[in-house]
Amino acid sequence: MATTSPSYPISRTLHSRTESRSDHGAPPAGRGPYIQKMRKIVIGWIVFLLNGDALAQPVEKDSSWVNMPSVMISANNGIHTYHILSQIDLDTHPARSAQDLLRLVPGLFIAQHQGGGKAEQIFLRGFDADHGTDVNVSVDGMPVNMVSQAHGQGYADLHFLIPETISSYDFGKGPYYTEKGDFTTAGYVDYHTVNAPAYNLIKVEGGQFHSGRVVTLLNLLPASSRAKGTNAYIAAEGLYSDGPFEYPEHFNRGNLFGKFSTTWRRSNDLTISLSTLSSQWRASGEIPNRAVAEGYVKDRFGAIDSAQGGTTTRTNAIVKLLSRLNDRFTLVNEAYYSHYFFNLISNFTFYYFYPTTGDEFRQHEQRNLYGYNGTLTHKSWFDQATLSSVAGWGLRCDQVSPSFLAHTQKGNAILGYVQLGDIRETAVFGHLDETLQTGHWLFNAGIRADYLHFYYGNRAPASDTSAAIYNNVSPRTGKAIISPKINIQYTANENTQLYLRLGKGFHSNDARIVIANQGYQVLPAANGADLGINWKPAPGLYINAALWYLYLQQEFTYGADLGDQAVSPGGRTERKGIDLSARYQLTHWLFANLDVNVARPRGLGEPKGKDYLPLAPTLTSTAALDFRFPDGFNGGISYRYLHNRPANEDNTLTALGYFITDLAVNYTRKKYEIGVAIENLFNTSWNESQFEYTSRLKYETQPVDEVSYTPGTPFFAKLKFSIFF
What is the pLDDT of residues 227-285, one digit of tens each? Predict the structure, then answer.
């Protein structure tokens, strides 16, 4: 979905529900006078804020937009080749949700398949990266990915991030970045929150499916303090949605974020941020094709197991100190902490393993995450060259107690444990990076060392499934890996840049699997190469294109049934492909973008025709036309296209692709904005997530192997109103 605004990083926002709701949508008795009173208060505030005399310091509209003729290709961005793309895209496509933050990366697709509160499934560069196994995600230097997570390795739930607080983001594709470690195989995404908001904000949005969201962003210090470099603000978000499902999701999420930043002695910058997320939802889950065709459920938005759903919370603290020691040295010290809770009820196979009680299961964990990152940067200048040296070090410690997978019934009763235990995982790392820039050339070489130590203490009763797996097996093991990187870049002029990337990365395995397999393939490596170009063939046109290759020492696969839910070691794989991104400013008010990504993912050592990688994307594309008029009207129309792809290794089952069109139109003034956003403009019937499952419905005598799916959102219209002050 493409939305634009002439002034502000406008997001699609929803109005949070202030009424509790029964399944029939009726508000509780006795709330009428209260609601009327609140309505009067809200209307009063709107009138006050829109009154120009009421604001001592009115917000001035910044009419700047991306100006492609002024965009120049430079070697000053180092090896971060995509920096120009990220700047352009954040300006023309302000993020409207946590999902949109991920979609900002060209070629990255997502899918939600167990209710709105679960982390999205990620697809990038021929990877079905599950929820983050092969994509490293971080916010302000704090990792988002969870190692040995109850639902999946690398689970990256970004829902604690309020999009309106984002100032910039950075991304890279492939394993070529020395500062990036675990999960950086397909690539990485970094998000950075703003230190000093330019304005205060209140947003309200509501739409179909009882959907609503409210957001506020408030500076806490006067302008005089901000002018001296001391800032503090808070942001809050509330969201509710039932979704288009027959069994309402009752998805509710609350976020609170605060950040303080200050500068003293002109050489030290301190930032402290705190955030907390609480989310709860119900899920219809994936349903097999035959359940609709044979009338087992009324339609594709029905549910088979109504106990599915989840609860999650995450509370974060980040402290960062940047010290400019002198003209050549900069030191950064950062510490972070997260407390995390996760509980998810799912049922993919229904009555396959347990015909009487059903195959429902619960994944649960409680986690404390501690970490530290340090970097020391040194720059040297010569007559014709600049040498930048970066040394980095750090550690991360995850303590999970308990972590379990249990066979359940009706969401509550635990019938038996498939896994139950405590996880301790510690990562220690160091890296060194050298970048020499001379004339038209840039040479970068880096090396990274990671050591991971795993502990899994089995607590399952001797009678349960997992007990025998860990008998006579040491609960501890460790492994180190060295990852070299080489990047060469030639910038012919401000319009043309060529680059070659070579590097090694890795993704770690789940601690439970590592211990059960006595340390085998703890840190499987990924080796990649990119040959690319950044090119401006015309003043208003920018193109990034790359040929790429990636070899993976071990593919991670995920179990599709109750007996095999953790990540499992797979075989060797390779991927090769082409990425193309184009950004074109047709006029001063009209902007176009296009992304096309082609990949050929295959398993190695498998017979031809049985070497497909299930669900791996082979062709994706997005495009948009965005407009921004001086009178305040702005918006855009966009599409997302995902091609059909194999759903199993021999391609006898197909995961269907889709073509979805979105539309947004806004009217933005100095102190307010109104707008409408429509997802799936043409009401296309599509499947958001798809999996091969061998399942058995209650009336069936034999299981059936076929594709199950979560239906994609139909036509979905939302209205928004924003106030700036």
Answer: 899 999 999 999 999 999 999 999 999 999 999 999 988 899 999 999 999 999 999 99
Residue 602 falls within a domain, yes or no?
Answer: yes
Q: Show the tokens assigned to 12.
A: 């699609």
E strand spans, 242-328: 251-264, 268-282, 287-288, 309-324
pLDDT tens-place string over residues 426-443? 999 999 999 999 999 999
Give Dmax (Cα) for the chain.
80
Q: Which residues contact 521 (CB under 8 A, 6 or more apart)?
A: 509, 553, 554, 569
In a domain, 309, yes or no: yes
Three-class DSSP category at 536: strand
With CA atoms as reference, report the closest residue to 344 among 365, 363, 367. 363
Q: Is the pTM of this model over 0.85?
A: yes
In a domain, 8, yes or no: no
Measured CA to CA, the distance from residue 676 to residue 715 in angstroms comes to 13
Would you say 218 and 257 are in contact if contact means Cβ atoms under 8 Å apart?
Answer: no
- From CA 689, how far away is CA 484, in angstroms rounded? 36
C-alpha–C-alpha distance, residues 429 and 372, integer Å: 10
Closest to 198 (Cα-Cα) out of 5, 6, 3, 7 = 7
Range of the domain at 707: 32-724
Instruction: Categorise residue 19: left if φ over 0, alpha if ψ from -120 to 50, beta otherwise.
Output: beta
Q: Is 356 exposed, middle or buried (0-12, 13-18, 19+ CB in 10 A)?
A: exposed
In angstroms, what is the C-alpha Rg of the chain? Answer: 26
Q: DSSP string of 358-413?
A: ---EEEEEEEEEEEEEEEEEEEEE-SSEEEEEEEEEEEEEEEEEEEEEEEEETTTE
Tally of domains in the chain: 1
pLDDT at 13: 28
Partners of residue 251 on adjacent β-strands: 241
Residue whose structure tokens are 């349960």: 464
Interatomic CA distance for residues 660 and 260, integer angstroms: 40
Q: Would 69 be classed as within a structural domain? A: yes
197: domain CATH number is: 2.40.170.20
